[in-house]
Amino acid sequence: HKLSGLVRNTFAVNSLQVGDAIIVLDCFLSPSIEAVMADLPNCPECSSALTYPDGEFLVCPECAHEWSATDTESEMEAGVKDAYGNLLQNGDTISVIKDLKVKGSSLVVKVGTKVKNIRLVDGDHDIDCRIDGVGAMKLKSKFVKKV
């Protein structure tokens, strides 16, 4: 029997060779990669700490969210911005910049529709509001501008 420790690329493997068979006892990330992963930010969608770099993007293996590695924590915490980069706040008035179909309905929110007293929420649709004639809705900030 022979016990060996082998490091290949970024994984370390401890194995036991019995005759012609190799039995893997342990497989783990090498310490250098663990240090790199510890410096990466958590996923902005699900807060997972298991993010990893993939080219110029960071990827979360738990929710499959990808985001630019150049985004810094301070930019992500800076707040919600409209389609033109203006910072939005709770209570703002916004205007829709594109016709938006209302899911599950034949209604359409037309370009130029003004929405008063918005609430900012976490998630993909980051604006919670009430639109006259339509009702309560969630909007993506990339389809609105601050008035």
How would you characterize the overall build of this protein?
Helices cover 9% and strands 39% of the residues. With 147 residues, it is mainly beta. The strands form five sheets. Strands 1-2-3 form a three-stranded antiparallel beta sheet. It has a three-stranded antiparallel beta sheet with strand order 4-5-6, with no helix packed on it.
Helix content: under 10%
Broad structural category:
mainly beta
Strand content is 35-45%
Shape: elongated
How far apart are the first and last residues' alpha carbons, in Å?
75 Å
| N-to-C order of helices and strands | EEEHEEEHEEEEEEEE
Largest sheet: 3 strands, antiparallel
Summarize model confidence as the mean pLDDT: 78
Q: Based on DSSP secondary structure assignment, what is the total number of beta strands?
A: 14
Radius of gyration (Å): 24 Å
Strand order of the largest sheet: 1-2-3
Helices, by number, come to: 2
Flag low-confidence runs: 1-10
